[in-house]
Design a protein that fits this description.
Blueprint (H helix, E strand, L loop, with lengths): L9 H11 L5 H22 L2 H18 L9 H20 L11 H7 L12 H13 L3 H12 L4 H7 L4 H23 L1
Helix pairs in contact: 1-2, 2-3, 2-4, 2-7, 3-4, 4-8, 6-9, 7-9, 8-9
């Protein structure tokens, strides 16, 4: 009995891709189906634009298509995929000068003082307003802080997978994640509360 593609593990799909691409696309299409939403979510949170996220997601999977035959499997496929996605986001951000530079501030508090505050009384945000507020807060973070939060929450990667993706030790990744969470809370409170 032959298994349907959706019942096959990533490792076997990758092996099929290595032997079948570029002529047979079924296994590659299944890989895209499995991982596209996560890559798109990371890119969308990275830039705040669905259109830009769609374009970057397509570029990521185009790079994967070309690189998959040389994928050696030393890392998990998901880790390798997200490394490509993050590199592509970095490249686009650098090209478009997309992020705020924080190096000009003596401390995080100096940076937080420059953010616009909301002096209006506290109000309950709608779901859409909440999403917008989270996105605005993420865009005010340092690039590396936003990156790790995106991988954890939008990419749904474990801290171990993030460490592999970012080529860092798990202890450093945990510390970086918790610092990024603290920074996000400060920015979110300043912008949205």
């Amino acid at each position: 009995m032959k298994l349907a593609l959706q019942d096959i593990e990533d490792a076997e799909l990758i092996e099929r891709c290595r032997t079948e691409l570029p002529y047979v696309m079924d296994a590659f299409s299944e890989l895209i189906k499995r991982h596209e939403r996560y890559v798109f979510n990371v890119c969308r949170r990275y830039f705040g634009s669905e259109d830009e996220a769609e374009d970057i997601t397509q570029e990521v999977f185009l790079k994967v298509f070309h690189a998959l035959p040389t994928f050696e499997g030393r890392a998990q496929f998901r880790t390798w995929l997200f490394r490509i996605a993050i590199n592509q986001c970095h490249a686009v951000a650098e090209k478009n000068k997309h992020f705020v530079k924080h190096e000009n501030y003596d401390s995080e508090d100096d940076f937080l003082d420059t953010l616009p505050g909301d002096d209006s009384p506290h109000q309950v945000l709608s779901d859409e307003d909440e999403r917008d507020c989270v996105q605005r807060s993420l865009l005010h973070l340092r690039q590396q802080d936003m990156e790790i939060l995106n991988l954890r929450f939008m990419g749904e990667l474990s801290l171990e997978e993030i460490a592999d993706t970012l080529s860092s030790k798990i202890s450093a990744t945990k510390m970086r994640f918790y610092r990024a969470m603290e920074q996000f809370k400060k920015v979110y409170e300043k912008l949205c509360m």
